[in-house]
Design a protein that fits this description.
Helix 1 runs parallel beside helix 10 and helix 9 runs parallel beside helix 10. This protein folds into 2 domains: about 230 residues, TIM Barrel (Alpha-Beta Barrel); about 60 residues, Alpha-Beta Complex (Type Iii Antifreeze Protein Isoform Hplc 12). The strands form 3 sheets. An 8-stranded parallel beta sheet has the order 5-4-3-10-9-8-7-6. The chain is about 30% helix and about 15% strand. It is α/β, with parallel strands linked by helices. It contains 11 helices and 12 strands.
């Protein structure tokens, strides 16, 4: 259910906890295991809860052909000029790296999991003890893959980028029918980088109500503003691509956060979550001390017994030790029953019966 708590190997996710922050490594390791491990270490220093990999090879995700269908020529596409096979050869994380990356994460207290892109990747990740699975936006129509991942009984995170409502409903039904009991959907815009105005974050509470599960955000926009806004709408998970430095390149570097930005996301998302609080009116416990600095009714000129309150001798001023301002009109024209100096708080005892 939407208000349930999901425990991913002792990291609790839900509305009662700060947003679960995932640093997506993707291909930002630039084919260096040393760099991949350094990304893990810096991610831990930033305070994220999890590091996520992508588990595929060029052969498990596409075909080794150089036909027009497989060529990226969309104007503005970050990867324009590449054939799919060549791009994935450059971007994939070698499977033999997964174990040392998983182990380094465990040493640093991080959750490590991955996005499998085919059924063989699920089998591989099961042997590594992956605590959960993420289905990428481009795979949310791959029902056999969803079925395979869900059948493990582990928590499942599905990105919803590009999915029509009927497609998303089919994905969720497939996951649940295959045994998924802990599901998180991530609102996602599958453009790289994404434009904030295409984020449509108001979908988050709608999706949560519609599917009865937790909803988070997989965010490809620059900076952290969109991610923080999602917290206000109930996002319990935030996934952002992460790199050591955008200037050092990497297939996803252009829309990835650098360390200082990731630190800010961790800190500010928790601050945003704390700010949600509850529906409440009236002063908080800490505000009680400030009530004395509100305005109230005070004698504004020396008065003698029998004098009448008027606009010159009765003022609404700070501090707040006198009667509330709401009685100002009632007191105008009323007599005072004893002498009062300028600066005397007005009380009912001052008035003639």
């Amino acid at each position: 259910m939407a208000d349930s708590i999901i425990n991913i190997k002792k990291k609790e996710i839900g509305a009662k906890f700060p947003p679960f922050i995932i640093a997506e490594m993707s291909g930002n390791h630039n084919q260096s295991l040393e760099r991949a491990l350094r990304i893990v270490e810096v991610a831990a220093e930033c305070g994220v809860h999890a590091v996520k990999l992508q588990t595929y090879t060029a052969d498990t995700i596409t075909l080794d052909v150089e036909k027009e269908d497989f060529f990226i020529d969309d104007p503005g596409n970050l990867w324009k000029g590449n054939y799919l096979y060549a791009l994935y050869q450059k971007a994939y994380t070698p499977w033999e790296w997964h174990r040392p990356i998983f182990e380094r994460c465990r040493e640093l207290g991080l959750i490590c999991f991955s996005t499998p892109f085919d059924e063989t990747a699920v089998d591989f990740l099961e042997k590594l003890g992956a605590p959960c699975y993420k289905i990428a936006s481009f795979e949310n129509v791959h029902l056999p893959l969803i079925r395979k991942a869900a059948a493990t009984g582990k928590p499942l995170i599905i990105s919803t980028g590009m999915a029509a409502l009927a497609e998303l409903d089919q994905a969720v039904r497939t996951a649940r029918e295959a045994g998924c009991r802990e599901l998180i959907l991530l609102k996602c815009t599958s453009t790289y980088p994404a434009d904030p105005q295409d984020s449509n974050l108001l979908t988050i509470p709608h999706m949560r109500e519609l599917f009865g599960c937790q909803v988070g955000l997989s965010d490809h926009t620059p900076g952290i503003g969109v991610a923080l806004a999602s917290v206000a709408l109930g996002a319990t998970v935030i996934e952002k691509h992460f790199t050591l430095s955008r200037t050092e390149g990497g297939v996803d570097a252009a829309f990835s956060l650098e360390p200082e930005e990731m630190k800010a996301l961790v800190k500010e998302s928790e601050r945003a979550w704390k700010a949600l609080g509850n529906v409440r009116y009236g002063p908080t416990d800490k505000e009680e001390k400030s009530l004395k600095f509100r305005r109230s009714l005070y004698v504004a000129a020396d008065m003698q017994a029998g004098d009448v309150f008027n606009q010159n001798n009765l003022r609404i001023v700070r501090p707040g030790y006198g009667l509330p301002p709401e009685y100002y009109d009632l007191l105008i024209g009323k007599k005072i029953k004893k002498d009062a100096e300028k600066g005397t708080p007005v009380s009912w005892e001052l008035l003639m019966k």
